[in-house]
Specification:
Arc Repressor Mutant, subunit A, TF_FadR/GntR_C, 61% helix, transcription, GntR_C, GntR family transcriptional regulator, 2 domains, Four Helix Bundle (Hemerythrin (Met), subunit A), transcription regulation
């Protein structure tokens, strides 16, 4: 008679009325899709910062490790971007961002400038036509932060503040596709600003963006477009 074979017993069923706990991989995928759905739904717009990890844990009802892995998956997909000391931001609603980032590397800065000009000039023109009081308040705040960052003397802080102002201009254009495409070149955008600074914030490198904001406030699309384009001449200013 052949020896009997013992098979491992199935895990015990949860007590009656208590839902089964899904496996870890499933929880991560489910949490990733929840985050993606909130991004696609506009709760966290492109260019905006998502809640902190503890806030996400409380909102989604999952553990820290699950949230961390879900966020990491969306960073890898190019939907989110972690910025040291600042937080995690939405950079795209799809996986276009990493593709664009690979195309627009540091060795193609001339092309990056041309792409920035194409986006930012039209964004400024549209912003002058469509800006709302909330947009103007956001622009004023971003401009003030940019000035403060310049006077603070740290190149990395200024690069972030400058990018935030330009992103606010794009947001004021109220064109979702433009905002998404612009966000996809965010890393390359920061590289052009950092390169233009040359490692130090010196007076001759300063570019005032006050006139750009004022042109948008005045509802003058032609002047706003000219101001936006003036920053992106061959000198590659911020």
């Amino acid at each position: 008679m052949p020896p009997s074979v013992e098979f491992p017993s199935a895990p015990p069923a949860p007590p009656r009325g208590q839902p089964a706990v899904p496996p870890r991989g499933h929880r991560v995928r489910q949490t990733t899709e929840q985050l993606r759905a909130r991004i696609l739904g506009g709760e966290w717009p492109v260019g905006g910062r998502i809640p902190t990890e503890p806030q996400l844990v409380a909102a989604l009802g999952v553990g820290r490790n699950t949230v961390r892995e879900a966020v990491r998956a969306l960073v890898h997909a190019g939907v989110l971007e972690c910025r040291q000391g600042s937080g995690t931001y939405v950079v795209s609603t799809d996986e276009l961002a990493p593709v664009v980032a690979r195309r627009l590397g540091d060795d193609r800065m001339t092309e990056v400038i041309e792409v920035r000009r194409a986006f930012e000039v039209e964004a400024a023109r549209l912003a002058a036509l469509r800006r709302t009081p909330e947009d103007l308040a956001a622009l004023d705040g971003a401009l003030a932060q940019r000035e403060a960052a310049w006077h603070g003397g740290r190149v990395d802080a200024f690069v972030e503040a400058d990018a935030a102002l330009h992103t606010a201009v794009v947001a004021a254009a109220h064109n979702a596709m433009l905002a998404e495409l612009y966000a996809s070149v965010g890393t390359a955008l920061r590289s052009t600003v950092a390169q233009a600074m040359g490692g130090a914030l010196t007076p001759e490198r300063y570019v005032d963006h006050t006139r750009l904001v004022e042109a948008i406030r005045a509802g003058d699309p032609g002047r706003a477009a000219l101001e936006a384009g003036a920053f992106l001449e061959p000198a590659e200013r911020a």
